[in-house]
Amino acid sequence: MTQAVRWIKSQLDVGYYYRLAKQRRHFRDLVACIPDDTIVVICGGMGRSGSTWQFNVAKMIFEQLGHNDIGAGWVDDLPVFANHKLILVKIHQYDPALAARSDLVLTSYRDLRDVLASSQRCFNRPPSVASAKMSVWHFEQWRAIADHVLRYEDLLERGKPAVAEEMIDAILAAGDEATRRPDVRARFSGQQIADAVEALRPDRGRGDREQDQATNNGLYVNHITDGRQGSWQGQLPDEIVAGVEAACGRWMRAHGYLARHLPLYRGEKASKATSHAA
Fold first, then answer.
1. Those residues with Cβ within 8 angstroms of residue 211's Cβ, 6 or more apart along the chain or in another chain
2. Pick from 112, 143, 109, 47: which is nearest to 246 by CA?
3. Spatial separation of the C-alpha atoms in residues 25 and 261, rounded to whole Å
4. Are 41 and 89 in contact (CB under 8 A)?
5. What pLDDT score was predicted for residue 271?
6. What does the alpha-carbon distance between residue 218 and residue 198 come to, in Å, rounded to a whole number?
7. Which of 169, 182, 260, 274 lies deepest, with the highest CB count within 10 Å?
8. pLDDT at 164 over 70
9. What average pLDDT does the segment 103-126 reach?
């Protein structure tokens, strides 16, 4: 092996590209299970960012629209629930084959530090900067084609009924002329849908697989661990927090999770310069 080849191998995570290729094949096989005339709704939000809430709100909206043949569940269970007229597929990672097959895309995001802290509490996953960076990458791919984007903190600040109203508007707007009629919109209540989702309880334990995914609400025992904004404080190690803020700072500032470091305006700059010179 030449020195150049050794250097190239040292710079590449060969295992990562192998896993990525294997995953892409897996998703292509899953997409092949979907009948051609099935409506495909992708719920592709960040993990621990309210994506399950968004998933269940969407399911209730479609039920109210009169869809009575709905399959719903986690992406790996697609062979079990794909054979329905409309399916809701929950996934966190971006995949081009699923994106190409989608008819509607919903996504969600949250402060990356809270995402890591929540994943640690719920799944015992060690927090890492790499995980935060991948969460941003996958989210941005789904966001680019999304019909609705949920900001987790809006659930806390503006309230779930208000966000449910936004989702109703987005989903009806993405439909045909029939769904965009005012009389159809008048039948929906964000408050009622938010209350119905709040009343849901886990329909399976973690790791279990339902044989009938049509009733799967995506919730499981210990699904909600804290939910507060800033719950990462006192939990994440300082070095992880610093690493995430350094690696993802531009994204976090753009979404309001870090303060912007803007230059002083010209007049104050000049005033300070004059006083220092004196």
1. 80
2. 112
3. 43
4. yes
5. 45
6. 13
7. 169
8. yes
9. 96
